[in-house]
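Handoff note, outgoing to incoming analyst
You'll be picking up this chain. Sequence as last confirmed:
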Amino acid sequence: MLIKGYDVGPLMAGESLLARPGFWSNYLLAMCSDGGCAERPVPEWFGEDGADADALSEVLFDPERWPAFRVPAEDGPGVVVIYRNLDGDYGADYLLTHPGRSHVEQIASWDGDFSGTGLTWHELVRIADSPSLATEGVQDTATRFLLLLPLLTDPDVPETASTRLIAALVVVGAPQDTVSTTSEHLLAHLTKRTRHDPTWASPLSGS
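Most recent structure output, in case you need it:
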């Protein structure tokens, strides 16, 4: 798999991994690992268990095959999430794809902490809700929303944000009796570590 403008490692299409038990705890629990939670983050928040998470982490963090998750958007920028599995430099890179451009633009990364420009709530939702059915990648809007969630750098999320997140988590298997708490934890961490500056130019503008 090739992505022009990102020639770092051996990429593979990762979309088939999204339905595997253990994916979402691997992908989202890292946001809650800074010790700010009153309770320890666990895979059970996503309807998974430790064995699920451990087994899939062997696949997600394979230095020989770097999973890439494509979130193409109709008539606008899309996103690619890549597990950057360099030896001693594991992390995630978030790339923006622009219509009409052959090269991607890296807008953020995760290396135990978030760095980069990220997206506002409205930008995130716009991409999540605009799948490009003619392009390979993730089409389900709930899954797209959760893949984009770590990019949220907006302290002013609407009151409906929790409802939207709860609905998406339920779609991927989060238990009904704990999903509200899981949503609260995730949104609290995202808005606490936000780096969005309203004076910055949006990466979606192409500037």
